[in-house]
């Protein structure tokens, strides 16, 4: 028998737990569609457990995304994580991580940051995109946390999103890392990769998050961001993804990919 991706997987690995039965559910607001990938003769059935295990192995030697790297260095409070996430918006990790470290080494609590002048705060984060606006946002968050919440942010997504500059991506990621909440954070990498897989079909990060909340097993809700940020930076890149050496090529439907390496 000729060796195909399908029978190669069947003989060398445990059978996937998920069948290829396709389910499509239109969302009430029509912003996203949840879909399991279409069966394809040249692809094995899509098994999220297997795919994420392969991605986990592939990113083992890559640097952690900025917020996970900060948590590993002890900056794991909700306030610190929220500060770091705001700094990371529209900014490369290589830039936002040193800026976050510089700021948190000077002021890691709401009280300390609230006592800084916004201009001094701005000077510490100057390499970051929109540093001026972010300096004022961070200062306002610190002041309100000190005055309204006794210096400790509550682990509450709705409260976090009342702060200017904080959307679902930052609120969810900070809550997942600092408070152990099961929450999915979808940045541009998570959005791009899960849509290329064919695991979701959505035209914005917000719609992708809603779609993932419907079908991604909860045990992966926090880990997904940690895995797919480095995977999206180094393997499933924005232009010319490295499909020929990708560990999930057999499963991935390569939706919209026209010029792979
Ligand atoms: S096969 Fe290509 S499109 Fe699919 S995850 Fe890998 S790099 Fe991305």
From TrEMBL:
<dbReference type="GO" id="GO:0051536">
    <property type="term" value="F:iron-sulfur cluster binding"/>
</dbReference>
<feature type="compositionally biased region" description="Basic residues">
    <location>
        <begin position="1"/>
        <end position="11"/>
    </location>
</feature>
<keyword id="KW-0456">Lyase</keyword>
<keyword id="KW-0411">Iron-sulfur</keyword>
<keyword id="KW-0227">DNA damage</keyword>
<dbReference type="GO" id="GO:0003906">
    <property type="term" value="F:DNA-(apurinic or apyrimidinic site) endonuclease activity"/>
</dbReference>
<protein>
    <submittedName>
        <fullName>Endonuclease III</fullName>
    </submittedName>
</protein>
<comment type="similarity">
    <text>Belongs to the Nth/MutY family.</text>
</comment>
<dbReference type="InterPro" id="IPR003265">
    <property type="entry name" value="HhH-GPD_domain"/>
</dbReference>
<keyword id="KW-0326">Glycosidase</keyword>
<dbReference type="InterPro" id="IPR023170">
    <property type="entry name" value="HhH_base_excis_C"/>
</dbReference>
<keyword id="KW-0234">DNA repair</keyword>
<keyword id="KW-0408">Iron</keyword>
<dbReference type="GO" id="GO:0046872">
    <property type="term" value="F:metal ion binding"/>
</dbReference>
<dbReference type="Pfam" id="PF00730">
    <property type="entry name" value="HhH-GPD"/>
</dbReference>
<keyword id="KW-0255">Endonuclease</keyword>
<feature type="domain" description="HhH-GPD">
    <location>
        <begin position="87"/>
        <end position="234"/>
    </location>
</feature>
<keyword id="KW-0540">Nuclease</keyword>
<dbReference type="InterPro" id="IPR004035">
    <property type="entry name" value="Endouclease-III_FeS-bd_BS"/>
</dbReference>
<dbReference type="GO" id="GO:0006289">
    <property type="term" value="P:nucleotide-excision repair"/>
</dbReference>
<keyword id="KW-0479">Metal-binding</keyword>
<dbReference type="GO" id="GO:0016829">
    <property type="term" value="F:lyase activity"/>
</dbReference>
<keyword id="KW-0378">Hydrolase</keyword>
<dbReference type="GO" id="GO:0006285">
    <property type="term" value="P:base-excision repair, AP site formation"/>
</dbReference>
<feature type="region of interest" description="Disordered">
    <location>
        <begin position="1"/>
        <end position="40"/>
    </location>
</feature>
<dbReference type="GO" id="GO:0000703">
    <property type="term" value="F:oxidized pyrimidine nucleobase lesion DNA N-glycosylase activity"/>
</dbReference>
<dbReference type="InterPro" id="IPR011257">
    <property type="entry name" value="DNA_glycosylase"/>
</dbReference>
<feature type="compositionally biased region" description="Polar residues">
    <location>
        <begin position="12"/>
        <end position="23"/>
    </location>
</feature>
């Amino acid at each position: 028998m000729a060796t195909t991706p399908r029978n190669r997987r069947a003989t060398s690995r445990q059978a996937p737990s998920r069948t290829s039965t396709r389910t499509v559910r239109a969302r009430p607001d029509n912003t996203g569609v949840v879909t399991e990938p279409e069966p394809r003769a040249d692809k094995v059935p899509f098994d999220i457990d297997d795919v994420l295990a392969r991605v986990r192995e592939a990113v083992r030697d890559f640097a952690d995304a900025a917020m996970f790297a900060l948590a590993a260095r002890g900056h794991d409070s909700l306030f610190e994580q929220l500060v770091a996430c705001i700094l990371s918006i529209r900014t490369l990790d290589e830039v936002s991580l040193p800026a976050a470290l510089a700021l948190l080494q000077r002021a890691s609590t709401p009280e300390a940051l609230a006592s800084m002048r916004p201009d001094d705060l701005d000077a510490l984060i100057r390499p970051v995109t929109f540093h001026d606006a972010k300096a004022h946002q961070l200062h306002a968050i610190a002041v309100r946390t000190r005055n309204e919440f006794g210096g400790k942010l509550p682990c509450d997504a709705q409260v976090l999103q009342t702060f200017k500059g904080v959307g679902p991506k930052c609120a969810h990621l900070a809550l997942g890392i600092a408070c152990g909440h099961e929450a999915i954070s979808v940045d541009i990498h998570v959005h791009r990769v899960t849509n290329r897989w064919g695991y979701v079909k959505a035209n914005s990060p917000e719609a992708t998050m809603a779609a993932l909340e419907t079908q991604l097993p909860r045990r992966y809700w926090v880990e997904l961001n940690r895995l797919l940020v480095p995977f999206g930076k180094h393997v499933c890149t924005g232009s010319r993804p490295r499909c020929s050496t990708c560990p999930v090529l057999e499963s991935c439907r390569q939706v919209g990919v026209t010029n792979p390496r």
